[in-house]
Amino acid sequence: MEKRDIHGVVFDMDGLMFDSERIVKYSWDVAGERMGYGKLGDNIFYTLGFNVDKRKRHFQDTYGEDFPFEQFREEYRKAFWEYEEKNGLPAKKGLHELLDVLAKKNIPMAVATSSSHEYAKNNLQREGIEAYFSAVITGSMVSEAKPSPEIYKKACQALKVSPAHALALEDSYNGIRSAHGAGMITVMIPDLLTDSSPVDELLDGKMESLLAVARWIESC
Fold first, then answer.
1. For 4-26, what is each residue's pLDDT tens digit?
2. What pTM, to 2 d.p., does this model score?
3. Which candidate, 180, 169, 172, 179, places its Cα nearest to that of 212?
4. Mind listing the pLDDT tens digit for each residue in 98-124?
């Protein structure tokens, strides 16, 4: 990554700030087995970055229009919270270091997540990092989900920064397409998806962790 003039940073949440996508995959396996469909966790690889409506459409397209998505949603949420209550929801490597670096440099931050507002707020509060963010843009606040650029455009508007000088940190292909479409500096931090080749032409960079991003920002 070459040094860039960054005026704002927008974070995805699941799989980027928190190691949650693996728990989602596990909870989908649990829910699928409880409902008699078998393990459904691998569907996450096709729905990363989707909001709930797009995920529902994926499951209905894959398993039939009569797929009981609302029941599935209740079951996987139950499995997710059971896991989280027992094991916690770990922050990704370097999250706190990066937030501190950006705060010291007075670079404003926002979250752009397809998840619900309540879920996002609870995660940020529990980790003690809510105060770092000037804005939290969630799936219910946009009319089009990722890969539409709408959510990232809204985040840049909330930060009052030009997308050309705003850094987007993402782990999913749809999130990368969204941020790139908004005209942002786009960096991938791999999580469940490690192969960046489908989106390499859209990326300004790829780093192994948020800690690597923190060290890069410090050098800028």
1. 799 999 999 999 999 999 999 99
2. 0.90
3. 169
4. 999 999 999 999 999 999 999 999 999
